[in-house]
User: Fold this.
Amino acid sequence: MTLPSPEIGESLCQALREQVGKLGLSIGDEPRWSAAGFETVRDPFSQEESVVAVWRGGERFGKATFFPDGRVFAEYQVLLPHPTQSGAYVDAVQVWGRPQAWRGEAVIVEYPA
Assistant:
């Protein structure tokens, strides 16, 4: 298993924090690349192996999949009330793409009635 470089990992963590920051919220210094655990997963169809970084054991859970072609998809829990939408909270943020051009969005969920 070849792990992603620390530079790419740190860039991804920063991109996740920036998605939270766009909402006017903060999750401090989470996620931290140094706190990630790693595993390899095999795609049942293509048989390609991807490296998965996982953050667990703290206040939040997160996961990033590093595909063989260089693409990445990451999701990290936020679990904070939405700052402008009453009745909703920010469940998580997602980041995807390649390290040179991260894209992302927040996952907004309405509180149950």
Remarks:
- The two ends are 45 Å apart (CA to CA).
